Amino acid sequence: MKPINVGLLGIGTVGSGTFKVLQRNSEEISRRTGCDIRLKMVADKDVSRAKAIVGDSVLITSDANSVVSNPDIDIVIELIGGYTFAKDLILKAISHGKHVVTANKALLALHGNEIFAAARAAGVTVSFEAAVGGGIPIIKALREGLTANRIEWIAGIINGTSNFILSEMRNKGSAFSDVLKEAQKMGYAEADPTFDIEGVDAAHKLSIMAAIGFGIPVQFSKSHVEGISNLAQVDIRYAEELGYRIKLLGIAKRKINGFELRVHPTLIPTRQLIANVEGVMNAVLVKGDAVGQTLYYGPGAGSEPTASAVIADLVDVARMMTADPQHKVPHLAFQPDMLSSVPILPMGEVETSYYLRLRVVDQAGVLAEITRIFADQSISIEALVQKEPNIGESHVDIIMLTHITLEKKIDIAINKIGALPVVVSPIVRIRMEALH
Length: 436
Description:
Elements: E1 4-9, H1 13-24, H2 26-33, E2 37-43, H3 47-54, E3 59-61, H4 64-68, E4 75-78, H5 85-95, E5 99-102, H6 105-122, E6 126-127, H7 138-145, E7 151-157, H8 160-172, H9 176-185, H10 194-197, H11 200-214, E8 224-225, H12 233-241, E9 244-255, E10 258-269, E11 281-288, E12 292-299, H13 303-320, E13 351-361, H14 366-376, E14 381-386, E15 395-402, E16 405-406, H15 407-418, E17 428-432
Helix pairs in contact: 1-13, 5-6, 6-11, 8-9, 14-15
């Protein structure tokens, strides 16, 4: 088989890792692929930096369009990120009959349906293992390894920055703002960390996994997204005391009347393996009707871990280049004309259990008044803890764990309880998942 020529767009952290791993493991990769994969062109705005990384063996340009239109390039790797220029380049590469490998989860979450449709029309492949979970082969598992299963739910720690912050808050007892500064100093958090700490990055990845797992279009805009920036140290401590750990989870569930698609801080029982995933590591739990629960764990970012996923896609594309397009694995695992139109449920229709923290006046009758409101909404309380007031204080924390109920019922209860004169601060609500 003739060598396969690759054009690389962007040679930053992941791009440089991709080049290094391709060079280092070229013989192993050729043995797996049955042909040589050659990096022929690199496009990067910083030509001198690119040359310092790849040397003279590769043609370097600042013009990305010249790569995607070059007739000698078979596969384009897009690692520049963003929604606009990257989208134009990918669509242009597809129109020129080139296969595409990308790590751009934000682009696929917003425009994946359009990109996949264009690729199908052109008879080419868009591969994106590196877009979710860094080096963890979760896309491969969902698209191929679990094909026999009806996927019931997916739950993942899929943002390393947030997981690092929560781990440090728990281990050191530090406030969110202090740990965020530490994460930025260590390079785990961007100067503008909004996408990471507000759950947007996780929601991008979750919408892609849900599409593959359930056979639905990518629907990031219908995701419920909450981050960790308002999470208080006291709730992390109380959760630990009750046998739970707080993680930022992406959760996708199949329900009778639709699919849940949500990202938010979540209490998980500490006995669960995923509750013990620490630092910048990622983990995804998938529940299939035949296989049960499977757990995928590993580094969710980094130069060579992500390059591992990029090159795995390269090898897959190389193997499929001679295959009939009708016999390739569909981009979203299901045949494109058989995607489900079952809706994403609004948050009010989500069913889960809840951790609630109430700051109240320490006086007789308060609990009776609160529990009556819960009873009116048919909300059952699993556990209730009243903390001792600090010396000289007249206010006390009440912690309540509920059984599974509808979110809209909890909303009503919180609004009514929050209006009571004995409640002295906003009620804290964190969702809980048993994951069984």
